[in-house]
Amino acid sequence: MKIFFCDLDGTxxxxxxTISAETKKAIDAFVEAGNCFxxxxxxxLSSALILRDRYGLTYPGSYLSAFNGAILYDNTxxxxxxxxxxxxxxxxxxxxxxxxxxxxxxxxxxxxxxxxSYCDDLAYYMMKTSMPCIIDPDFIRELDPFPPKVLAIDIxxxxxxxxxxxxVMRRFPDQIDVVFSEPSFCEFISKSAGKGKSLRKLCDxxxxxxxxxxxxxxxxxxxxxxxxxxxxxxxxxxxx
Length: 240
Description:
This protein has seven helices and 13 strands.
């Protein structure tokens, strides 16, 4: 058996967030041949499940890696196999840094986005993901003990994210990985998460040799799984 980890945005999904008939047919054939298909995305679990169902990616024996590998989900049994996250004290420090750099920051309590206030950045994210939001100035109290990730967004001036990224990497080198899932989305995840670690974890659970794994993605957050897989594919965003 081979196992294929596929990114959503910019890889499986076209710019209009649909899947071409040719791509769907190829995935169907891959699964029918006895292989395993895995959605691997930076999106929240609830957002990824919406797209999974919309485009008929509910294959028997398939899986979903969400929040940049912080959650592994079994589509057949509809349960979480593995999850990790950030301690709330670190989330509080990230929120303080976002204030220092004048950035919007948010976290998650499935199926909700959790934010301290409403802004253009949040509105864009809600439109993109179809997720509802909890607004609370004291957003820490709305979160579970180990939220899967924290996200800083600046859709108008994404270059403003870089100073915070650099400061987080300097301050938390052993606790946080920082990746961009698109130019305006700076993602903070636990060192124990990441798409590459998620790929290895699921291969271990299913006892699939790493050389039988494939991975495709188009952005910075996909690089770890592309490097980890037996066959890695760096995709170009397609529009047709």
